[in-house]
Amino acid sequence: MLTDLTRQSLAGLRILFVLTVLLGVVYPLTVWVAGRALADRADGQPLTVDGEVVGSRLLGQSFEGEQWFHSRPSANDYDALASAPSNLGPTNPDLLAAIEQRRAEVAAFEKAAPDAVPADALTASGSGLDPHISLAYAMLQADRVAEANGLSTDEVRELVEESTDGPILGFLGVEGVNVLELNIAVQHAAR
């Protein structure tokens, strides 16, 4: 006859074995199979141009030069490993100075009035990696991008409209323009 200690030990070992198989083999395998079934959605939705990955639909990145639409500012220089806001409050003097500096720079670069610069051109998103800009910020940049790429302003504005995503489920959030997708479309149209 088995002692209570031996029975409890065997029961514990059986539970350990079953949970190890379920949580250490079955569950990870199920997640892996689901990820493969969702293809690029599980891999960060990479965008490719001519067979080469140029970025992700989900992560913002920096674009410099007159030929590109520019992203929102990033509190972490678009570093996906350091995804975070600046944590500066709305009355912080450093944040207010940075906003005014950005306002002057964007207004000068876009040849626009400082009060025409939208808020998303001045402030970073909560993650610092938002891939979208507002329709207003995209339209502010349209003339410059059209001229730099030898396209008409109407062509570029049409590309902006085509690259605009509506609110999630039609009512959550606001419409936005994915900067990477838009820059790829502009590059393709300029060829």
TrEMBL record:
Which residue ranges does UniProt annotate as crossing the membrane? 12-34
- Swiss-Prot/TrEMBL keywords: ATP-binding, Cell membrane, Ion transport, Membrane, Nucleotide-binding, Potassium, Potassium transport, Transmembrane, Transmembrane helix, Transport
> What is the superkingdom listed in this entry's lineage?
Bacteria
Keyword Transmembrane helix on entry: yes
* InterPro entries recorded: KdpC
Q: Could you tell me the membrane topology recorded for this protein?
A: Single-pass membrane protein
Keyword Ion transport tagged: yes
**Cellular compartment(s):** Cell membrane
Function, in words: Part of the high-affinity ATP-driven potassium transport (or Kdp) system, which catalyzes the hydrolysis of ATP coupled with the electrogenic transport of potassium into the cytoplasm. This subunit acts as a catalytic chaperone that increases the ATP-binding affinity of the ATP-hydrolyzing subunit KdpB by the formation of a transient KdpB/KdpC/ATP ternary complex.
Q: State the similarity comment.
A: Belongs to the KdpC family.
Q: Record's NCBIfam families?
A: kdpC, PRK00315.1
* Oligomer and partners: The system is composed of three essential subunits: KdpA, KdpB and KdpC.
Name recorded for this polypeptide: Potassium-transporting ATPase KdpC subunit
Provenance organism: Nocardioides dubius
User: What's the name of its gene?
Assistant: kdpC
